[in-house]
Write a structure and sequence with these properties.
- The structure is a single chain.
- The protein has helices spanning 2-24, 39-56, 73-90, 148-158, 182-190, 194-198; strands spanning 34-38, 60-65, 68-72, 96-104, 107-114, 162-167, 173-180.
- The protein has 199 residues and is an alpha+beta fold.
- The strands form 2 sheets. A 5-stranded mixed beta sheet has the order 2-4-5-7-6. Strands 1-3 form a two-stranded antiparallel ribbon.
- A hairpin with a 5-residue loop joins β6 (162-167) and β7 (173-180).
- α2 packs parallel to α3 and α3 packs antiparallel against α4.
- The longest helix is centred in the first third of the chain and has 23 residues, at 2-24.
- The protein starts with a helix and ends with a helix.
Length: 199
């Protein structure tokens, strides 16, 4: 019983922390710590931490490509962590989780592709809503708070980017994070922050 109470307390602590992050996200652009990073490199760093969960499910994480951006490293790592953790939890055991980074049209793309249970098309646009669950019976079993993908959406928006989910004809689920490329974001990064301009 004590172990169950501790697990529930930890889940509630994560929930409170996630809710606070989302509540503060509207004011975060002024506090972004912008630097030059590469989405594929950050994905590899995150994959090292997600490796334990992947090993438990016999899932291989494959990462390729490159996509340089000017962004807040900590927030980008958090967004990628949420995407990879979600993909590992919901992909079939014994499969490969594919992560592709690329530049296209002045945008840095990061695709997280996994083979798992089919997600009905009506659910796809709502996956990034707060507390939205495709399968509510697994809400607590996954150990998440229901805010992970909402946080990814908030982080993407803070950087002037976006995120979406799609179901491909090959039966794969694809989550795509898009951020302004390093070349597109560099001029903005050189400008003083909105806070400094107001002062």
């Amino acid at each position: 019983m004590l172990e169950g109470n501790i697990d529930e307390l930890q889940r509630l602590s994560r929930l409170v922390a996630d809710m606070l992050f989302l509540a503060q996200a509207d004011h975060a652009p002024d506090a972004l710590q912008l630097e030059r990073i590469d989405l594929a490199h950050e994905a590899r760093r995150v994959a090292d931490f997600a490796g334990l969960l992947a090993d438990e499910r016999n899932v291989v994480i494959s990462i390729d490509g490159e996509a340089p951006v000017v962004a807040d490293r900590g927030l980008v790592q958090r967004a990628i962590t949420n995407l990879l953790s979600n993909a590992v939890r919901h992909c079939h055991a014994g499969t490969t989780l594919q992560v592709h980074a690329r530049l296209e049209g002045g945008i840095a793309w990061l695709d997280v592709v996994n083979h798992g249970e089919a997600i009905a098309s009506e659910h796809l646009p709502r996956l990034f809503d707060r507390f939205y669950r495709v399968d509510r019976s697994r809400a607590r079993d996954g150990g998440g708070t229901g805010l992970g993908l909402a946080i990814v959406k908030a982080i993407a928006a803070l950087h002037g980017g976006s995120v979406e989910a799609a179901r491909g004809p090959d039966g794969m689920t694809r989550f795509t994070l898009r951020l302004p490329s390093m070349e597109a974001a560099a001029p903005a990064a050189k400008q003083p922050s909105a806070t400094r301009r107001r002062r």
